[in-house]
Amino acid sequence: MTGPRGWLRQPAATRSNALHAGAWWLWALGLATAASRTSNPLLLLLLVAVAGYVVAVRRTDAPWARSYGAFLKLGLLVLTLRVVFAVLLGSPIPGTHVLFRLPEVPLPHWAQGVRLGGPVRAEQVVFALCDGLKLATLLVCVGAANALANPARLLKSLPAALYEAGVAVVVAMTFAPNLVADVQRLRAARRMRGRADRGFKALLQVGLPVLEGALERSVALAAAMDARGYGRTAEVPPRVRRLTAALTLGGLLGVCAGTYGLLAAQGAGFGLPVLVLGLAAALAGLWLGGRRSVRTRYRPDHWGARAWLVTASGVAVAALLIHAAASEPAALNPPVVPLSAPTLPLWPAAAVLLGLLPAVVAPAPRRDPRPDSKGAER
Amino acid sequence: MIRFDNVSVSYPGAPRPALRDVELTVPEGELCLLVGPSGVGKSTLLGAVSGLVPHFTGGTLHGRVTVADRDTRTHRPRELADVVGTVGQDPVAHFVTDTVEYELAYGMESLGLPSDVMRRRVEETLDLLGLAELRDRPIATLSGGQRQRVAIGSVLTVHPKVLVLDEPTSALDPAAAEEVLAVLQRLVHDLGTTVLLAEHRLERVVQYADQVVLLAEPGMPPVIGDPAEIMAASPVFPPVVGLGRLAGWSPLPLSVRDARRAARPLRERLADRGPTPVVPPQKTAPVAEVSGLSVRRGRAEALRGIDLTVRPGETVALMGRNGAGKSTLLGTLTGLHEPASGGVRVGGVVPHRTAPRELVRRVGLVPQEPRDLLYADTVAAECSAADEDAGAAPGTCRALVTELLPGVPDETHPRDLSEGQRLALALAVVLAARPPLLLLDEPTRGLDYAAKSRLVTRLRALAADGHAIVLATHDVELAAELAHRVVILADGEVVADGRTEQVVVSSPAFAPQVAKILQPGPWLTVPQVAAALADEARA
After folding, report:
1. Which residues of A touch B144 (CB under 8 A)?
2. Which of A96, A309, B393, B427 counts the most CB atoms within 10 A of its CB?
3. A195 inside 8 A of chain B by CB
């Protein structure tokens, strides 16, 4: 295995060297930020290709990894919807190339400003396509993070004070497949009563027993969790408890006020400092709140050099495109009026390609030559 | 280690206390077995040890329960989590995380153990329970025996002094049950863990017990003592004890090995006799014919090249490991799964192409969880719905219920019935359509010996009536008592098909206890031996 570049070569992924889930999310959010800065369809498609390539070479066979296809379909759906709405409702984009005319529906005067049907212009459709593509790219980036990072492990990296929320999500995620299995079992049982086992009505009639089953399971799970020590707390002096509450509450208020200051017309000057102060106080509150919990973590993910590199590649793409959007607005957001073929701006495209770094540095998943493992029945 | 001082538990609205005047001491490092019929409060007693009764279930507990000198009155279950490990009846309900390794670590994380200790204990436990191969597997893909081992492992990692288990082997095939019991043995012997377990299938566990607690009747104080002494008078007992009582052996053997040593004179007495031959049903037209059947579930081939013929009046037992394809075969006979190749005919029709209304008159299935079949909120409503579904005359189902389940009032909610009663109700619902072929999936899971023997009587009568019965079961004693024929499945293929006595006697996993004791004689059950001895006395 160790070739001439032995130590440079990425290792096979195992439980111990798995990339931190947070690194994948930061990388994907970097790509998404980059996508939000441009409406150039060539750049957007390049971003989709980059995300898709990394997913293709670095995802595992785990169930969550299969969700990528669903995100792609969702992206396509959003794109189609955006175009269909632009065609039906029109948009305020001026233009001269009328493709065709839809019969216009006369609307009452109070619905002024809304138009149904009417002339469909090429500029409108192109704008909607670019806009839809941007949304679809954002979705694909989120999908990539979802396919590459184990959601359970991401929740495990939450601060201790948020641990309870994390458990609720994990439990919900394991409950969903159980519910599906219940529905299938009960529908099969209906067949044994001589009732139809397919169709909407059949699904409705098994609803109540399925809910009953789910409720019973949750009670049993709650008992099991209690018996396994869930919710054990450490003694915290009342002073610390009060301080925690004050910090968290004050911090959140500060965050609200700071955001308002940043967004409102006046007061941008005090907005940023208040926001930063608020965030700091809220984080301190969370950290203090974690002292109540006695929990420890089993095999926490390490944030190593490879995680830094993956994060850096995402951040770099975002930063370079933000910079490009300011310095070359025409190339990144080409105007649709007048219509022209988009061109690929060279150095922003090269910046997007930096996002391919994880395909080289992240540990490679082992491809299991065996088919689906047996024993999945029962 | 565990002390019950004059403990009574009562739930509001119940006519009598669930437990009364329990005085019990379990010393450290003992394996204590809790036995008794369904509904006598075994689960309540187990729950009282872990503190779930009354902290979680409600109700009132009088007296005092202490575990490792901690009073459950002042310690909530989570504060006992480091001394008591509890595994309930259904391991699936116990899992909080999604993979084996995290499940093993969960309890330790809750207790706040340092991470190097956690890592070491997870590795040790993976080895102790033989789970190392499965460490990264999602729990949903494990078989029943593996899940049970993971559930036990997940409470072992916190090194509890006491382990409480509710029916740990009843859902498992014989081999998987052996695995789990071997692990418990090892814990008791090597680590000095105190184990308290309740189990209906005494033939599997009683020989391992140091002490037996018998709850004979609801609301009565328990009888506690040496396993052999208790078994001599217990209303629930395994076949080995039945044979021992019949032959008058003293001391009463509890394991097959001890019984074989005591059985030499009996084997000689029975040498020139054989059990009354079971009359195989006449060669009539089959009610179900399966030929060259293959079924796929997803990409896996669940069944491959199955041939099976069932004739009226015949009882066939399907046996094999968890996941061998037994339930799939039953499902295919009822049209739930479409064959990938080969043919299935039930009562002259192809099941998966037949409308459910037509099919119920030809084949009836009682599923593993009889509750799945019941929708209504009273027994009477369930019966009238069943008559309507089956197109039977009104009152058919109710008459069957009265016959199978005497003394159950119309307005009882099916949920309030015991396991055995619910099974009988589901059976009545299925029988309302008078199907000539009756299928049962794991019918004795959770049944006590009395309910099981009632079920055996009913199924015998149905077979004598001309019904063909196919039952998928792990219960070797049930198969020995009931089945004319045994079919063993492994990995989706038939590996043995023949008369019960020919198939089971030669197999170490599927032989009933009596067959193991009286080998090489052809005996399978205690009643057969009793009949032969009575015959001898008359001659």
Report:
1. 378
2. B427
3. yes
